[in-house]
Design goal:
Elements: E1 2-4, E2 11-17, H1 19-26, E3 31-35, E4 38-45, E5 48-62, E6 69-84, E7 96-98, E8 106-108, H2 110-120, H3 160-168
Parallel strand pairs: 6-7
Antiparallel strand pairs: 1-8, 2-4, 3-5, 4-5, 5-6
Length: 170
């Protein structure tokens, strides 16, 4: 995914990347089932670029609780600021600097898309909000079947002292 920065005019520009290109770039991170095309809005003002847009990506995940495979839909939001050429002063830490002479007038956007995709990933992959997970005793998937462990109602012996204290207050 390359953006030709030397061909951009002042003001608003746009660049569209096909779904296949998006899937190819993101397939190194996760198994991509489907992706929408990405339409980037590029605003050029003097030596600055503001690139923003979003796309929808469906990827295959494994649930962190029950280990079942499922598909999850993510919205990948993209919002980057770049400076073209040399920059002096405090703003140098605020934006990424592009050197057109070194990049043949192009901005390779693959890593920025991957970064935005990784930031869109949930911290915990769940097949559903009410996933019950696996039984710690027998390993049964509690979403599909009841646990067959005989000691299911037995409490952890480490809590016995606390239970005694609660019962003496009554």
């Amino acid at each position: 995914m390359r953006i030709k920065i030397d061909k951009l005019k002042e003001g608003g520009n746009s660049e569209v990347f096909e779904a296949g290109e998006i899937s190819e770039v993101l397939s190194t991170e996760k198994k991509i089932v489907r992706a929408d095309e990405l339409c980037l809005n590029i605003e050029k003002s003097n030596d600055y670029l503001h690139i923003h847009g979003s796309c929808s990506v469906c990827c295959e995940d494994s649930c962190d609780r029950c280990a079942e495979n499922f598909e999850s839909e993510l919205i990948v939001n993209i919002d980057y600021y770049f400076h073209i050429g040399e920059i002096e002063g405090a703003a140098a830490d605020d934006v990424e600097i592009i050197y057109p002479d070194e990049s043949n007038g192009e901005l390779v956007f693959d890593d920025h898309l991957k970064e935005s995709f990784i930031l869109a990933l949930p911290l915990k992959n769940l097949c559903s909000g009410d996933c019950r997970g696996l039984c710690v005793g027998c390993g049964a998937n509690l979403n599909l079947e009841k646990c067959s462990c005989p000691d299911k109602d037995k409490t952890d012996p480490r809590w016995d002292t606390l239970t005694k204290l609660l019962n003496t207050d009554k």
